[in-house]
Each structure stands twice: as C-alpha cells, then as structure tokens.
Amino acid sequence: MFNALVLTQEEKLTIANVCQIAETDLPEGEVLVDVACSSLNYKDGLAVTGVGKIIRNFPMVPGIDFAGTVLESSDARYKAGDKVILTGWGVGENHWGGLAEKARVKADWLVPMPSNCDAAKAMQIGTAGLTAMLCVQALQNAGIKPADGDILVTGASGGVGSVAVTLLAQLGYRVVASSGRVAQNSALLTKLGASEVIDRSELEGDARPLEKQRWAGVVDTVGNKVLASALAQMNYGGAAAICGLAGGFALPTTVMPFILRGVNLLGVDSVACPFEKRQAAWQAVLNLLPESYFEDACETIALEQVPEYAQRIIKGQVTGRVLVQL
C-alpha cells in the first residue's frame, strides 16, 4: 500500500483526499515507477478543484508530471533502477498520474533522466519548463534574434512564464514581462532577467487590428484579449509562440497582423511532443537554467498540501514552480 491523492466526484463536486491504494489498483502500463517528486501545474489545479472539466472518469489520481526510479519494466528500453521523467500524454487526466508514491505508465511516455538532473530539479522544471523551452526554441527557429527587439512574455508570474523569462534573458534577449501581480512579483521577475515589467491591464483592452509595433517576439500563456493585443503590436516579421489559455480560449483578432506585417503564430504543445524533440528540449533547458532560478522561483510542498495549493494556483496566487515531494 502507498499514499496517493485520489479524486472522486460526489453530486458533481470534485473531492480530493490523500489515501492508501495498492499496486493492483494502478492502471495498465509496461513500467512501474517509484515516484520521488511531482509538481503542481495550472492544469493540475483545475483538475484537483474541479473548476475545469479536466477529469472525465473517477476515481482519478491527478498529477501531469512525475520523476522517479523504475521498479519494474516489461519494456526493453527501461530496467529496474533507471531514473525517468514523465510529462504530458494525458497522464493525470485520463490515466492515473504522478501525485502518488507509485505510478504505472506506458514506456513510450517516459524520458530517461539526463545525467545533469535529479528528480527534484526535473519537477522544478516539469511541464511548465519544458513548454517554456519549446516556446523559446520555436521563436529561435522562426529566426527571432536578440538584436531584433523586445520579447514579451505574458503570464510571466506563472510556471511557464517565469521559466521563459529566465531562458530568454540567459540567451541575451531583452525581455518584457507582463503580469497581473506586478506589485508582488516585479522584483522577482527582474531578478529572473526581465528588463521591464508591465501590468497585464496594458494588454487587456479591445485591440485595434494594428497598433504601434512593439514586440519582436511573444511567448503567450494567456490567450484571449492579451494575445490579441500582443499580435496587433508585433513588429514586421515577428513571431508569437502560444501555449496557454489562462485568460480564455477565444482569440478576438483579425488577419491584419499576419497579412500586413508577416507575423507568424506558432502553436506549441508539450503534451504529445515527440520523444527526440522532448529529449532535446530537456537537455537544452537544463543547460540554460541557472541555479538561481531553482532557488528564487520554486517552492516545495507535501502531498497533503496539494488541495490547498490547487485552490491558490487557479486564483493566480502562486508564483513560479511548485515541487511536490513524495
């Protein structure tokens, strides 16, 4: 028996409890993992609170990320004792996830732990850090260089945003961080590498089809009016890497930025990212993130604290990354 956060549903309300379950309760998969660490993402917050209809089948163990050690494997790629990471693939949504001391998953979903990483660091990065790295790589592949101008990061206080600010600054870009919590987080965002911090309200108005050119690139985690405003302010030939919808899934914009300024809209997904691309992104983010990021923008909680922090993360009261120590 081992501890797990189990979600059940009663009268359409999601109930989260830490309880004991058995290995035989776990779903099918080729690899059984002793989970050392997980993390708390915005999607986890939606799942645990039931605010977002993330979970369709109950009971469910949430947790879209985990890192740990292989206990058993029927797949030749992994053997007992191997260190592994899992992010995405619908784990914690439709397959029992990482907020438990053990998990059984498909071998295809795993990535070997890089040599310069451990379970705690992997989960301090997690889905958010992997997604941020993929966004930065998308901008680089689109030809956006530091000399081209400012890069806007929306939702900069969150997991993806805070990592993106740090990575871009490390690569020499001038970063403008947009946040709804400027008073609380301006000092931290500046410390992470932002050259300027602006209030989210500057981007929340109804955007005109085109506005004054301001951004060479954008990493957007918010969507909706914030993204629409950013697109209207893009430089000629600029690119926006988009990966989130914290502000809603609508996009109230026009074709004008795309056909008159040659703006590129780059969709970024880390959930089903192919193995080779995923592995390369993991190594890149580990090489770029300074130790100061882990010290300044990460906090650690216990499994029993997840329901409380889930409420906080969906209310925008969590900054940076949350490591869950199993």
TrEMBL record:
GO terms for molecular function: acryloyl-CoA reductase (NADPH) activity. Residues 8-324 form the Enoyl reductase (ER) domain. InterPro entries: Acrylyl-CoA_reductase_AcuI, ADH-like_C, ADH-like_N, ER, GroES-like_sf, NAD(P)-bd_dom_sf, Zn-ADH-like_protein. It holds the Pfam family ADH_zinc_N. This is Oxidoreductase. The lineage of its organism: Bacteria, Pseudomonadati, Pseudomonadota, Gammaproteobacteria, Alteromonadales. It comes from Shewanella fidelis. Gene3D superfamilies: Medium-chain alcohol dehydrogenases, catalytic domain (3.90.180.10), NAD(P)-binding Rossmann-like Domain (3.40.50.720).
